[in-house]
C-alpha cells in the first residue's frame, strides 16, 4: 500500500501555461433552483492563476431544477470541440437541456425530448461524446439522444427506456467514444453501443461484484482515456470503488477495491494523467484520492483531505467534483457542498513518487448564493477525455 502525508502546501495551479493567458477558464454550476416553476440558473466563476474562484455572473438556463436526487447524475457538462465551446445544463421540471455559449456566457437555446422526459424525482443527468449529448430522465428512466449542432444547439433524435436488474432507474452515466455506461442505483450496471447515435444495449447487464453484499451500489462512473477500463464509485457504507475491463467493448465482472476509511464514494473523477482517482466522500466530510494504474486498472491507497470546513453546520453532503487544470494530477480538485445556501470546496493536491497530500485551501469554501442544494459542477476547458 502507498501511504500519504498531510502537509500544508500552497494552492498552486499552472493555469496560464496550461490554457493561455486569454483563454476562458471557468467553474460552472447547475444551481437546481426549485419552486413554482421559478427560473433555474447557472453560476459562473472565473478560476484565477492561483486556483481561487471568483463569482463572475449567473445565466438563466430554464425553468426549475430538482433539489436533491441522484448525486452521480451530472446536471452540467462542458464541451470544447473546435469552435463549439459550450456548457450544457438540465432543467428537471421541463426536462429541457440548455446550451450556453462559453465565449459570450449567453443562452444559446433549449432542446426537449419526449413528453415524459422529465426528472423532478431525481434529476436529469448528462453525458456527451462531441457528436451527441445523452440525457437520463429519472421520472421515466429514459435515455434521450440529442445531436450536437453548431453554436451550442441540440436536436432531439430519440429515446430508449431501460431499467436495472432489480428495477432501478438510470443513476449515473458516462460516455467514451461509442460506448455509454449506466448504473441503475440497484446494484446493476450496463453498457450500450453508440455507433448509430442512439444507444443499443450490448447485452451485458449485470450486478456488480461489490453490490452482492447488499450494502454497496455502483453510482458514479468514469472511463479511462483509452477506453480500457470503466471505474465505478459506489454508494456505500464504506468507500468502495469497482473497476471493469471494457476493452472488448462490453462490461466484464468488476473488481472491488476498498479505499481510505470513510463513508460513500458516489462521485469520482480521474486526474488528467490518470494517475489518481479523486473520490467525493458524499456522506462523509472529506475528499480522498487513490492511485490508479491505467495499464492494469489497479487501485492502491492514496490520501485524504482534512475535515472540510462547515460540515454539518453549513452543508450536509459532498457531491460533484471538478478539476482545476487539464494536465498532470489536475492541479487541485473542487467539490460541490450540498447546503442552504451551498458552497464549493477548494482542495489542494500534490503527488510524487507514490505519495500524495490533500488539504483544503485557506480561501475555501466559496459560496454559491443562488443554490440551496448544489450537486453538479464542471470546469471549462474540460478534461480532454
Write the layout of secondary structure elements.
Elements: H1 15-19, E1 26-30, E2 39-47, E3 53-63, E4 76-81, E5 84-90, E6 97-101, E7 106-111, E8 124-128, E9 132-137, E10 142-148, E11 154-161, E12 173-176, E13 179-183, E14 188-193, E15 200-201, E16 206-207, E17 216-223, E18 229-236, E19 240-245, E20 255-258, E21 267-270, E22 276-280, E23 287-292, E24 299-304, E25 315-323, E26 333-339, E27 342-352, E28 355-360, E29 366-368, E30 376-380
Antiparallel strand pairs: 1-2, 1-30, 2-3, 4-5, 5-6, 6-7, 8-9, 9-10, 10-11, 12-13, 13-14, 14-15, 14-16, 17-18, 18-19, 19-20, 21-22, 22-23, 23-24, 25-26, 26-27, 27-28, 27-29
General description of the model:
The chain is mostly beta strands. The chain has one domain: 7 Propeller (Methylamine Dehydrogenase, Chain H), CATH 2.130.10.10. Helix content is about 0%, strand content about 45%. It contains one helix and 30 strands. The strands form seven sheets. Strands 12, 13, 14, 15 and 16 form a five-stranded antiparallel sheet that branches. Strands 25, 26, 27, 28 and 29 form a five-stranded antiparallel sheet that branches. A four-stranded antiparallel sheet has the order 3-2-1-30, with no helix packed on it. Strand 4 and strand 5 form a beta hairpin. The chain is globular.
Amino acid at each position: 500500500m502507498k501511504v500519504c502525508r498531510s502537509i500544508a502546501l500552497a494552492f498552486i495551479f499552472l493555469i496560464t501555461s496550461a490554457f493561455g493567458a486569454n483563454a476562458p477558464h471557468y467553474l460552472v454550476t447547475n444551481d437546481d433552483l426549485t419552486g413554482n416553476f421559478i427560473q433555474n440558473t447557472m453560476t459562473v466563476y472565473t478560476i484565477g492563476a492561483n486556483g481561487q474562484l471568483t463569482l463572475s455572473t449567473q445565466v438563466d438556463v430554464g425553468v426549475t431544477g430538482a433539489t436533491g436526487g441522484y448525486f452521480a447524475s451530472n446536471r452540467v457538462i462542458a464541451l470544447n470541440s473546435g469552435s463549439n465551446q459550450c456548457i450544457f445544463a438540465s432543467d428537471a421540471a421541463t426536462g429541457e437541456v440548455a446550451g450556453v455559449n462559453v465565449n459570450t456566457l449567453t443562452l444559446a437555446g433549449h432542446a426537449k425530448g419526449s413528453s415524459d422526459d422529465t426528472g423532478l424525482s431525481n434529476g436529469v443527468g448528462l453525458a456527451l461524446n462531441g457528436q451527441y449529448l445523452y440525457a437520463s430522465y429519472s421520472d421515466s428512466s429514459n435515455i434521450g439522444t440529442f445531436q450536437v449542432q453548431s453554436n451550442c444547439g441540440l436536436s432531439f433524435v430519440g429515446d430508449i427506456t431501460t431499467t436495472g436488474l432489480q428495477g432501478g432507474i438510470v443513476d449515473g452515466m458516462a460516455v467514451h467514444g461509442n460506448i455509454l455506461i449506466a448504473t441503475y442505483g440497484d446494484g446493476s450496471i450496463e453498457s450500450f453501443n453508440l455507433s448509430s447515435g442512439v444507444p443499443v444495449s450490448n447485452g451485458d447487464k449485470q450486478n456488480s461484484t461489490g453490490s452482492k453484499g447488499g450494502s454497496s451500489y455502483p453510482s458514479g462512473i468514469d472511463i479511462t482515456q483509452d477506453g480500457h477500463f470503466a471505474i465505478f464509485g459506489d454508494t456505500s457504507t464504506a468507500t468502495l470503488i469497482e473497476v471493469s475491463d471494457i476493452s472488448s467493448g462490453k462490461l466484464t465482472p468488476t473488481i472491488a477495491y476498498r479505499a481510505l476509511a470513510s463513508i460513500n464514494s458516489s462521485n469520482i473523477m480521474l486526474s488528467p494523467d490518470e494517475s489518481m482517482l479523486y473520490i467525493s466522500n458524499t456522506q462523509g466530510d472529506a475528499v480522498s484520492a487513490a492511485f490508479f494504474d491505467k495499464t492494469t486498472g489497479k487501485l492502491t491507497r492514496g490520501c485524504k483531505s482534512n475535515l472540510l470546513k462547515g460540515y454539518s453546520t453549513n452543508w450536509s453532503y459532498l457531491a460533484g467534483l471538478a478539476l482545476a487544470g487539464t494536465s498532470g494530477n489536475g492541479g487541485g480538485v473542487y467539490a460541490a457542498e450540498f447546503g442552504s445556501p451551498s458552497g464549493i470546496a477548494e482542495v489542494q493536491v500534490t503527488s510524487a513518487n507514490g505519495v500524495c497530500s490533500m488539504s483544503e485551501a485557506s480561501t475555501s469554501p466559496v459560496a454559491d448564493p443562488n443554490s440551496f442544494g448544489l450537486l453538479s459542477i464542471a470546469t471549462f476547458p474540460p478534461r480532454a477525455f
